[in-house]
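Section 4.2 – Deliverable D4.2 (structural model, holo form)

The reporting period included a commitment to supply a predicted holo structure for the target in complex with adenosine monophosphate. Inputs used:
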Amino acid sequence: MSEQPAEKTEKAERRQFRAIKGTRDILPPDSALWNWFEQSAREVFESYNFRDIRTPIFEDTSLFARSIGEDTDVVGKEMYTWVDHEHQDLEGLRSFILLREPTFENLETVRLFNTQVKDFIRLARAGMADGTIPRTHHNERIVQDTSVVLEHYVREQVDGLSASIKDSIHKFEIGERITLRPEATASVCRAYIEHGMQTLPGNQKLYYAGPMFRRERPQKGRYRQFYQVGAEVLGPSDAPAIDAEVLEMLLTLFNRVGLAHIKLYVNSIGCKECRPKYVELLRGDLRKVKDQLKEDSRRRIETNPLRVLDSKLPEEQAIIEKLPRISEHLCDACREHFAKLKEELELRGVAYEGNWRLVRGLDYYTRTTFEVTAAGLGSQNAVCGGGRYDGLVELLGGPAGIKGIGFAIGTDRAILSIQEGGNLPKLPGLAVFIAWMGAKAYAPAVAIAKKLRARGLAVELPPEELKFRKSLGLADKLGAYYALILGEDEAASGTFTLKRLSDGQQDKLDESALIARIESELRGPNA
Ligand code: AMP
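Output (structure tokens):
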């Protein structure tokens, strides 16, 4: 007998859920490593007077399209975008209309089509009037034109017009297009503009930490929900010392967290004066060797020739090596900026390597670009990317003359590299497991747990009484530093037996001696 629909649904509901492809759970103890990494970043960034900024994880789609650039992989194919609206009625009606194939040979089909399109127009107008549907020029025009065409279609009985009516209705925007942020620079700039932060004194130094979303092909070090810790400096000055300070801060963090074999690559990709001339020169030279290039690079000759320099294909390397280099085509101001940056890096003891092919994937960069690679990551070895973006604030509708520079560290990759390097920090674990036995021991166990926790120690208090062996076994498995043994005898005498699990050494102590002992051993100079 076949399954009944209800049974089928029940079975489907009982299926085991799994994290969506390209996303993952960060579980303990790894999560402690993540917290430690992010906390280290906060401390280092704050020591350079950067402050935390928290922006929403979704924004208007056009914010990203405009800043990152339509012709990038991120905007072109990797964004999670949806139309945010409350008009299921209109959405449903639209799907019906789009399925209709009315013909004047069958007047009933035309009558139905006509009624549904009229309903659509009526609901669309009502939504625009009450502000639940975007009242854009685009939508106003669609509503207007569609009613004119519909009348004409019915009156003149022109079969062919139904297709153009359907096309217009398809293009009507029922809600706002919203995107899960693929990166945070655009959001930080949006917030800077929205809150008029240019009126605040000096440059704004901001940092953030959080998830980003890109629909990439998942592999080691590449996820669809990944995490970044980043920083941005926004303001009127573009002094090379700012770029250098940002890089010094970045490397201070990487040294502090023990990232192995890091390499900082630096380049300058010019400004809006010199870059377009270089891009044209590059395009011209690339056209000459077009036949020797593969599909992606060929396409980029026309759309974004700088991106050809990113190519990792072995057969293209010899050709790319012979292309003109931007460093030889920078304008005087850019050349001087880059030279000063290098001086500043030397002054600050920041080791770097020049890499003329480092153009970065996003459109908004100007002048300084940089990338940091680390060990243990295979082909996805970039842990951080960044650069200067002097025109971005203006491009997003903000005040003219505001400069910017920033970077984003891929936290997933930084953690992977630290784990692969084996140079893991010693993070505090469970300090005390309270092995209480007997009803009379319970109240003193609760009281001492509370006191130790108030001192910031991690304490595990079993919710139910356990046999002595089982209790100590569990303490061991949980990796506790001490077992605090509290039986009825101890409870009666107001003492505790403190056992260090690493070597089994134990002592009977009163409360103040107990606290002093634990604190001196776990918090002392050699802890
Ligand atoms: P981008 O904004 O592409 O320059 O990225 C900056 C950094 O974020 C990169 O260097 C990576 O470390 C990290 N990153 C970018 N995309 C991903 C991803 N899909 N999965 C994990 N990390 C990523």
